[in-house]
Design a protein that fits this description.
Chain lengths: 113, 113
């Protein structure tokens, strides 16, 4: 299972764009990159998943360079409600053939008014 | 994505007793996962539960302490046995979901007194 490294914490202000970078130097060919968000007293919630280049959904964008050894989660115009812990995971896409993910410590994002 | 109902949401238990946590999914899934999240920490996988077979435990977790049942494709239980204060944590179940990676329950907050 590929190990991931991400900043322990980040601060931002409302309305700013936040970029959280994750390193995964030993990512395998079949691995996907998935980001989860966790609020206090809740389970992690899927944000976005990608394999290469760029993926965008209604919540975030995920940028993956050609070598796939890192990825960047981009949250546009954050609000106070985006204060949470963000986990970067590398592993299978999901589904019945799936292996478990290994959760790193995550990045604690604090959005300030 | 799948919807998970996890019960109880929280409990306070006496030392030496046991707590059984239930996880109900609204669709059939082959693999279910149980995680522990200690206060202020990331998630640690306890075991993987497949329907019709014994659960597979991660290093540091044993069946006598964390027995798991998986009677059908939509339900699983995790029991935390012979409770001690060190077992105070949040316990989460998770399922693999082809469309969106993994879905998590809201967790069970266990306090042992």
């Amino acid at each position: 299972l590929a190990k991931t490294t991400q900043p322990i914490s980040m601060d931002s202000y409302e309305g700013q764009e936040v970029n959280i970078t994750c390193s995964h130097n030993n990512i395998a060919t079949n691995d996907y990159i998935t980001w989860y968000q966790q609020f206090p007293s809740q389970g992690p919630r899927f944000i976005i998943q990608g394999y290469k280049t760029k993926v965008t959904n209604e919540v975030a964008s995920l940028f993956i360079p050609a070598d796939r050894k890192s990825s960047t989660l981009s949250l546009p115009r954050v609000s106070l409600s985006d204060t949470a812990v963000y986990y970067c995971l590398v592993g299978d896409k999901g589904g019945d053939y799936g292996q478990n993910f290994v959760f790193g410590p995550g990045t604690r994002l604090s959005v300030l008014p | 994505s799948a919807v998970i109902s996890q019960k109880p949401s929280r409990d306070i238990c006496q030392r030496g007793t046991s707590l059984t946590i239930q996880c109900q999914v609204d669709s059939q899934v082959t693999m279910m996962f149980w995680y522990r999240q200690q206060p202020g920490q990331s998630l640690t996988l306890i075991a993987t539960a497949n329907q019709g077979s014994e659960a597979t435990y991660e290093s540091g977790f044993v069946i006598d302490k964390f027995p798991i049942s998986r009677p059908n494709l939509t339900f699983s239980t995790l029991t935390v046995s012979n409770l001690s204060p060190e077992d105070s944590s949040i316990y989460l179940c998770s399922v693999s979901d082809r469309a969106d990676g993994y879905t998590f329950g809201s967790g069970t907050r266990l306090t042992v007194v």
